[in-house]
Specification:
alpha/beta; 7-stranded mixed β-sheet; 45% helix; globular; disordered N terminus
């Protein structure tokens, strides 16, 4: 009887708990991206992944430089090639060797903005992001780089490789962004010239002028990619490639790399396949000249056509586990 009373008590207690209202701080009520931010800010695994990427990139660049015919002059590495013009003239083309990096979540840690958005129930918008950039420019304690990023850039500088930054930060944030980069020790006389801020990628005249300057046909692969606006960074990327000999690319987003993925409104499954196919097509570049950083907080993998709003549960794949359970259990 005692055992029976205990069982009934446990049953009644369980029923009482089931009828209690869900507390506001219950896990189900927390923002869905909370764990992503916690992981990025606290996990040793995130730090290890970043260090792994940057150390691997350092060795890859060192191997490339040692095997190439470059000129080291004035603290910089240069590529000199002989160019024959249509009229038969021969001239030297001399370009500095460079690496190209995205900034946010590739060099700069902005997880503080994501943490603030969760804590205050705010969302990303240009106004809030503008305030964040101003805050960064004014607050040295917020100047945080990804683990291993500054060490890699220091080694690249010793090799004579110039860092070029292509970011979707708006021009209004240039002064604040330069303050952060200089505060992190990345200063150089021409730093502002190597910082490409967000522009208008839909300006036809600017695209046409760039293609003409580079001597490219609109029917070339670069011309078609630029016309299709496969990435809002495409024009700036091509401009950088016309000025520098790029030996390495870094980013946390597929569109930080010179990929051929149209900016499309195709169904999510279709665009995800195109993105996966492009990753596979460039398999030999990952880890040799293309280096991607982890970012579970935001990116083109989540926003836009890849995973349309409201379809997150639909794209989850249990690999057939539930079907197996129904059949076997």
């Amino acid at each position: 009887m005692k055992a029976l009373r205990l069982s009934l008590h446990a049953l009644l207690l369980g029923l009482a708990l089931l009828t209690q209202p869900v507390r506001a701080e219950a896990p189900a009520q927390l923002p869905p991206d909370l764990l992503a931010v916690v992981w990025q800010q606290t996990s040793a695994e995130y730090k290890a992944l970043c260090m792994q990427v940057f150390q691997g990139a350092t060795e890859a660049m060192r191997t490339h430089v040692q095997g190439g015919e470059y000129l080291f002059q004035d603290g910089r590495l240069w590529l000199q090639t002989l160019v024959r013009h249509p009229d038969g003239r021969l001239t030297w083309d001399r370009r500095p060797v460079a690496l190209v990096m995205d900034l946010d979540e590739t060099v700069l840690d902005n997880s503080g903005f994501e943490a603030w958005a969760i804590q205050t129930r705010q969302t990303y918008n240009p106004k809030n992001w503008g305030h964040w950039m101003r805050f960064q420019g004014d607050t040295p304690s917020s100047w945080k780089a990804l683990p291993g990023a500054l060490e890699m850039l220091c080694e690249a500088r010793k090799m004579g490789i110039s860092p070029v930054f292509i970011t979707n930060r708006n021009e209004s944030g240039r002064a604040a962004t330069l303050a952060v980069l200089r505060g992190l020790g990345l200063d150089a006389p021409d730093l502002s010239e190597r910082l490409y801020m967000e522009d208008d990628p839909n300006e036809p005249k600017a695209r046409e002028a760039l293609l003409k300057e580079m001597g490219l046909s609109p029917d070339s692969a670069e011309g078609r990619r630029l016309a299709a606006n496969s990435s809002d960074k495409e024009r700036r990327r091509l401009d950088a490639m016309s000025r520098f000999h790029v030996v390495a690319w870094f980013g946390d987003n597929l569109y930080d790399f010179p990929v051929d993925v149209p900016n499309t409104t195709a169904p999510g499954e279709a665009i995800r396949k195109v993105r996966d196919d492009e990753v596979a097509r460039n398999a030999q570049r990952w880890g040799t000249s293309w280096f991607v950083l982890p970012n579970p907080m935001y990116g083109s993998w989540y926003y836009g056509p890849a995973v349309p709003s409201g379809s997150q549960l639909k794209v989850l794949d249990d690999f057939g586990f539930e079907a197996w359970r129904k059949k076997n259990l």
